[in-house]
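Morning. Coffee machine broken again, so started the prediction first thing and wrote up yesterday's gels while waiting. Chain of 124 residues, entered below exactly as on the submission form.
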Amino acid sequence: DPREYQKMTKKFLGKTHVEGVEANDLKREFKEGKAINVEFSNSKKTYKADLVLLAMGFSGCEEAISKNFGVKLDEKNNISTENFQTTHKKIFACGDARKGQSLVVWAIKDGIECALSLHQNLAK
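Came back before lunch.
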């Protein structure tokens, strides 16, 4: 099985084309309610390859959004909302920022519903 998960790519090997990759193992931990990846520095492995696909994943919203705007995050590091409105009354959120990583069609639907909620809020 060529698939490997929870790896931190450290170095691509090869001169004119990819011949391999060096990577360390990762472990997901929770610190102060937020998921973080912890790298095992002594776990370096070399994988031979002629093709490398990186699945970067999604770990939630940037911390700066919460800090800079006073927007509350939920236990999964998504922006917490009620009818798409965040804890900051002038900020609305939708899609992956609100629900976490999902299909693009759900993000589009969420965007439409968020726009309607925002419109209703402004019409008050």
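Helices lie at 63-69, 96-99, 104-122. Going to sketch it on the whiteboard this afternoon.
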